[in-house]
Amino acid sequence: MNKPFFINWQDEFIQGEALIDEQHRAVLATINSFHYFLQQGQGVEALMPTVNILVRYIGFHMKTEEGLLRAAEYPGLADYIVDSDNVTDEFMAICQLAIDNQNPDGLLVFIREWWQSHLELHHKTTPYLMNCAGQYCRVDAHTA
After folding, report:
1. Residue 38 vs residues 5, 6, 34, 117: alpha-carbon distances, Å
2. Which H or E element spans position 5?
3. What are the distances in angstroms from CA 100 to CA 39, 41, 86, 97?
4. 121 lies in some domain
5. H or E segment to which residue 101 belongs
6. Is residue 8 situated within a structural domain?
7. Which of 1, 12, 54, 73 has the fewest beta carbons under 10 Å from its own?
8. Helix, coil or strand: residue 73
9. CB under 8 Å to 124, separation ≥6 — which residues?
């Protein structure tokens, strides 16, 4: 029997910026992998590689958004950067608590709350992400 995902991808998550949508899907895939391993009865130590990937990927994602928002001259950029740093610090503190208490369930609560707040933030940032004049590095498959 298939176990359900922790967070299922929904069309309402689509931001309309391909790079951000792709990264959001990757964040959810990593979250759902963590949830799967947790459901398999993995202990905290066994879960930490997945948690480390998740922490790093969320940081990577937020740096990507920061770059796009900087290029779009987003007026709330300074607050976005502070919030990003706070998320990383809070995530690390909750990870340490999970290790100390040998109980990773608090991580799932934090992850769900982060995802919901991140989507709410996109109500402000997405118009800037979509209007970014910056260019992505594109590799032509025929010349590569």
Report:
1. 12, 11, 6, 23
2. none
3. 20, 18, 21, 5
4. yes
5. helix 77-101
6. no
7. 1
8. coil
9. 76
Whole-number Å distance between alpha carbons of 25 and 68: 18
Tokens linked to 46: 């066994």
**Tokens at residue 125, please?**
């940032």
Q: Could you report the per-residue pLDDT of 3-38, keeping only the tens digit for each?
A: 679 999 999 999 988 899 999 999 999 999 999 998
Residue 6 lies in a domain: no
Provide the domain limits for residue 94: 16-130
CATH of the domain at 50: 1.20.120.50
Query: 């109980």: which residue's tokens?
Result: 103
**30 with 9: CB under 8 angstroms?**
no
Helix/strand/coil for 123: helix
Q: What pTM was computed for the model? A: 0.83
* Residue 104, number of CB atoms within 10 A of its CB: 23
For residues 73 and 69, give the distance between their C-alpha atoms in angstroms, rounded to a whole number: 6
What is the distance between the alpha carbons of residues 40 and 37, in angstroms, rounded to a whole number?
5
